[in-house]
Amino acid sequence: MAASRNERVVETNDTDWYWDLDKQIAVRADNRGPADHTLGPYASKAEAESWKTKVDRRNDVWDSDDDEWNDVNSNYD
What we know:
This protein is an alpha+beta fold. It contains 2 helices and 3 strands, in the order βββαα. β1 and β2 form a beta hairpin.
């Protein structure tokens, strides 16, 4: 099946796990819904279930990086 021009194709296998944003549960790749309603892939069910912790940690790092960037560039204002 060919993807439409605006549709992104993600290679996955049946051992991948996703977090289903609608159902609020971890699901195997073969049971996942539309890509815009899922997060993943994750290597395990436990990883999929702890998606929020991973996202929060990543966002904290990005926020810290933004603060550093703003501090360095404030000298140019």
